[in-house]
Structures are given as structure tokens and as C-alpha cells.
Design the sequence.
């Protein structure tokens, strides 16, 4: 039996939330990311190349790529996972500010 795709279910119910997905990939990073953004109604996806020995699981460093729903891609060099988390949060804040401008939300 296949596990339910919780992120896809959240994307279908999404109203004003910012939905971020994470993808551990070994190939076709951008193509897979664009598909997931569309299929799951994501605002941002964090792609992690887990084929590299210095990034991914069981190491303290990562090489991430952030791709937003407008297909803007930002690739990061090898960095600590703490710095990667900061980069992700910075992007979420930018998305939130952009959303507020578009919707006129002042909260």
C-alpha cells in the first residue's frame, strides 16, 4: 500500500498559507521540482542533491537549490545546514512580503 501524499493534500486545501516542499533528488532536479510545485501547489521547493557525499543525510553540510512557483532558481554552494535553514527562512519571508503586497494584507 502506498503512503498518502500529505503535501499534495495540503496543496489542494491551501488558502493563504505558504507551502514549502523538500525534495531529495539524484537527477533531473529542476524538471522534478517544477512538476512537484505544480502537482502539489507549492510556493517553494528546496531541492537537495543527495548523490553527493558532502550533502544530504548523515553529514553536517548541504548544497540546496531553492525554486519558487515563478520558476526562479537560486543555487547555493556547500554550506552548513544551519546556513541552509537561514536561506530557506529568508526566502519564505520574501514570499510572505510579496504575498502581502499582492493581497493588500496588513497583518
Sequence:
Amino acid at each position: 500500500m502506498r503512503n498518502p501524499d500529505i503535501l499534495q493534500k495540503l496543496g489542494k486545501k491551501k488558502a493563504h498559507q505558504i507551502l514549502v516542499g523538500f525534495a531529495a533528488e539524484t537527477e533531473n532536479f529542476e524538471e522534478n521540482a517544477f512538476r512537484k510545485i505544480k502537482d502539489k501547489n507549492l510556493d517553494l521547493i528546496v531541492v537537495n542533491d543527495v548523490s553527493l557525499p558532502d550533502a544530504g543525510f548523515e553529514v553536517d553540510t548541504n548544497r540546496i537549490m531553492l525554486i519558487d512557483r515563478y520558476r526562479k532558481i537560486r543555487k547555493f554552494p556547500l554550506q552548513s545546514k544551519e546556513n541552509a535553514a537561514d536561506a530557506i527562512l529568508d526566502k519564505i519571508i520574501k514570499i510572505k512580503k510579496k504575498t502581502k503586497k499582492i493581497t493588500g494584507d496588513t497583518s
